[in-house]
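Suppose a classmate hands you a notebook page containing two proteins, each written out with its sequence and a corresponding row of structure tokens. How would you begin to make sense of it? This section walks through that situation. The first entry is reproduced here exactly as it would appear on such a page.
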Amino acid sequence: MDKPGEMWWSSSSTALRLDKLAAMSFHLRPPSVDKGVSAFFWALGFFLYLWLGMIAIGVSKGTALVLSAVAGAAIFLYIRLYGEDRATRA
């Protein structure tokens, strides 16, 4: 060993690490997300969009909050009940 860090970065150890990574290859899948969580994020996004939009066009803050909250709750329920229906494997 001529250099202090040579044992950590030698070409043989790099090849060994690459071989281990190739042997451990696997397919990554996205995490499973519950329908309720998905519905909540959609409702939150629409709520913010409606609330900021109403404030931008001059609707009073209280009215905008109430109308956006009611619409957000309706969107949450709609997506929760009728949202994506996942196909089952036969």
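The notebook's second entry, a different protein, reads as follows.
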Amino acid sequence: MQVLDRGDAARGVSAENQGIRAAGMATGTGHGLFPDDAGADGRRGMNRLFAIYLAISGVALFFPHRQPGWLGIALAHLYVITLALGYRFGGSLVAVLRAGLPRVQGFLADWYPLLLIPVLYGELEPLNRAVYGGRYFDELIMHWEELLFGGQPSFTLPRAFNALPLSEMLHAAYLSYYFIIFGPPIILYLMGRKEAFRQVVFGVMFAFFLHYIFFIYFPVQGPRYIFPAPDGVIANGYFYQLAHRILEAGSSQGAAFPSSHVGIAFAQAALAVRVLPRLAPILFVLATFLALGAIYGGFHYATDAVAGLVLGLLAVALATPVRRLLSR
């Protein structure tokens, strides 16, 4: 039998440990999508929240009206859930990134929830159709509009105040939604304030997920599908036309109540009070005009906007204790 000296033994233990770590990347568990880097603990709550949402939304695929391609969505949900909970299968892309491109891996670990928003939004329509087969609850919301506002503000306002400057201001505010989503996280990330960045991402994604669950299990089309688009002089406006082009290119039917535009805008403004206090007043002003623009433009019922405001602020109020709970 060959006798190993201490150096050989140490090298053998080191090689064995490396093999164990590599196997852990392939089939083990950790703290989420990217478990072994310095930010893992800070991301654990976000990863678990993401997995919980995918599980809740994926239940829709077991309803009888599921659309062609449902199995692909189900498998994608299952795979991302396993990654978010720390499992690896085979030659994981995550392991490859960690070994060869650690900075890219760290960036994706922080940004994947926000980067996947378009994908999650895009699957809302097939998910709510799987549940209801194309049935929507607009009639109920319109009844609430009559009770609360004495009419249909999304129809009457642009016709009563058909002025191009007013329309352009409100449509521009409506389009500021995309800055409101990504602006504060980008600022915090560039400042190197990683923990504040992760707090904001968790809060805004929690708000998104609450809205998206409504869109799946209580789908409402919104006035854009019920009433003709506001016309007259305002239809010539640049921001009016841009807003309509964007919605026609990529809106998910059934995603009106509560308004995620309003909810996310106010949630992001409320989150900024703590981490970007100088930006917060600007975000609150933008959110207010965005909410008015959502109604004036005929994109949402007034009830959608009010419900979005309440749900967005509720998400912010609950975000810290929920994140603490999921990070244990």
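A careful reader of the second entry would note: The two ends are 49 Å apart (CA to CA).
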